[in-house]
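Continuing the series of single-chain predictions for the mutant panel. This is the parent chain; the variants come on the following pages.
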Amino acid sequence: MNERPTATGVVERLRGTLIVSCQAYPGEPMRDPDTMRRVALAARDGGAAGIRAQGLDDLRAVRGALDLPLIGLWKDGAEGVYITPTARHALAVLDAGADVVALDATDRPRPDGRPLAASIDAVRAAGGLVMADVSTYEEGVRAAALGAHLVGTTLSGYTPATYDRKAAGPDLDLVARLAGTLDVPVVAEGRIHTPAQAAEALERGAHAVVVGTAITHPTTLTGWFAAAVASGRV
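Parent structure:
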């Protein structure tokens, strides 16, 4: 494996930029590593400065196609902590070519019973970077203290303690609060559906912005339009 870029180099390349999440759900027509590779290339051509991708095969395909900073994760399961849930998953993501390993850093039990610190320490020892996906301010503070290089607001609205936030769009208040407190960069992610929301996230202190659904998930995009047409609100 080639020598990994430094933490400072990767983080600085992402400052003030758009990261595009290229993922498809199991069973969908686009759930294919080569398709995600092509989606990532299209995102790069549109101006993305980084890519976030899921699954070892997808990560290998994307890594082989472009040299943008790559944030990788491995979803294993469908409930609780399933985004890169253990140190084993985290190291596999790193080995598949990710520069940054994204993992669930919420205050919930992990499937192997080990603490969050075990995953963060394993990635750091292997020379990789960690993006801690959190749902609350307290989780973000803890993840930074444990050594995460980046803290993302990815899971706000997707944990029992934060379900009430999901309907309100992106949690830019959490972005601002974390950015105003932490010494590590904060990445805005989660329900950012318009360019205006992305710009506001940066204005409120985000180091970078991740957009997925609104760029790379045609099933959802089609559904938005179909619902509007069906209701007569065109």
